[in-house]
Amino acid sequence: MLVIGLTGSIGMGKSTVAARLRALGIGVCDADAEVHALYEGAAAPPIERAFPGTTADGKVDRQKLAAVLLADAGGFKRLEAIVHPLVFAAERAFLQSERARGAALAVLEVPLLYETGGERRVDCVLVCSAPAHAQRARVLQRAGMTPQKLEQILARQLSDADKRARADFIVDTGGTIKESEAQVDKIVESLRGRQGTAYAEHWA
Predict the structure, then answer these.
(1) What residue spans of the chain are helical by DSSP H?
(2) CA 118, CA 126: separation in Å to the nearest integer?
(3) SS3 109
(4) How many Cα atoms sit within 13 Å of 158 on the Cβ side?
(5) Predicted structure pTM score
(6) How many degrees, rounded to 5, is the angle at CA 140 between CA 175 and CA 52?
(7) Could you tell me if 87 and 42 are in contact, meaning their C-beta atoms sit under 8 angstroms apart?
(8) Domain locations in the chain?
(9) Which CATH architecture has domain 1-26+103-195?
(10) pLDDT tens figures, 11-29
(11) Strand, coil or helix: 70
(12) Cα(16)–Cα(27) distance, rounded to whole angstroms?
């Protein structure tokens, strides 16, 4: 089984690319979705201990947590120490399930793949990229997003240029969705039949 890392900075079209991969019958594990689930379950108690007052009714209040982190940049490291091992366990369970069903390709969608060294645990990396003006316009349309929040997020991410330089494949999402999908189709076709080593080395 070939393990593919899907990444890209905020607003670069990862969801569009992931949707296309799923439409092609390829399993995708979305790290952000796993974090959302963890915030409503297993991660809430340790986060409350680390950041008192950021949970309610056993769930993390994302806005309260974001406010705390905005005032304490060092808090990100403490939060990651709680959340990353739980996400890793979910990714391992996903890959083992994909392997068991005989999947030839499986995708880990991880926004901070390079920032966390995750590229070492996959066979190849697909980076989503778009012009900076398109990225900014997309992100600032999101509910609750502000220029300040966007700058804080970008400060924690490798630049788009760095990600493009390190990528095995790039999907330019600056055009239409159909154009992005055509690029994904071509990449997937080139990967079919390739054997990977990452699963046996890191996930089995």
Answers:
(1) 14-23, 31-39, 44-50, 62-71, 75-100, 132-140, 147-155, 160-166, 177-191, 198
(2) 13
(3) strand
(4) 20
(5) 0.89
(6) 130
(7) no
(8) 1-26+103-195, 39-93
(9) 3-Layer(aba) Sandwich (3.40)
(10) 999 999 999 999 999 999 9
(11) helix
(12) 14
